[in-house]
Predict the 3D structure of the following.
Amino acid sequence: MSSASQPAAPQPSGQDRSQPPGQNEPPSSAPAHTHGLAASAPVPGEHVPGGSDHHLDRALPTVTHEDPSDPHASIYDHGFLRAAAVTLPVALADPATNAERHLEVLRDLHEQQVGLAVFPELSLTGYSLEDLVLQEPLLDAAEQAITTVVEASRELMPIIVLGAPLRVPSRSRLLNCAITIHRGRILGIQAKQHLPTYREFSERRWYSPGDDACWEGCASVRRSTPSRRTS
C-alpha cells in the first residue's frame, strides 16, 4: 500500500497567526521608517545626519560646584556630604613620612570640597608591622604623626579619620585605633573591638580589644587620659 503525501494545510491570508500580534510586523499605527532622511532633532555639537550644517542655537552651560551663581552648585546646601575613601602608599614603620602623605592627599581633597576623608586601618604606621609595633620609638613617632596631622587640619575642610596604634599606659595595653580629627581638634578615638585571630591574622598577639576603653575631652594624644566606660 503506497503512502500518498498529504497536501499542505492552507495558510490564512494576511498576518501570520503563529506569532502573537506585534511580533512579525509593526502595528498599523506605527510610522513608517524613512531611511536616508535627516533627523528631526538636532544633535548637540554635531551636524544633523544627512542634513545641512545645523548646530544648536545656544551653547551648553558649563557649571561646576565652585560656581556661586548656580543655586545647585554646592551639594552641602541640599543636605549631602562629599566623602572620600582614601588609599595611599604606606611607608612601613615610618609615621612621619605617612603623615606628610596624608596631608598631601588632604590638601587635594580640601580643594575638591570633600567633607569627610577616611584612611585605611593603621594608615600612619602600616598594618603588617608584627612585633615591631611593640617598640616604644615607633609608638612615640605615631603619636607625633597624629599631632602633625591635627595641627595641619586647622586649615583643611575635611573631617579626617585615620588609623594608628595607641598605648593605654595605666593598663599596659596597645590598641588599634581610628582617630577622628577636624579643624585642629581630635573629635574622638575609637579602639578596634573585634580582633581577628584566624588564618594570617594574629592581632591579639599585639593588640587588646578596645571595648572598655575611651578617651574623653582629649585635645591631643599626649594629654588624653583613657578611662573605663561608665555607660
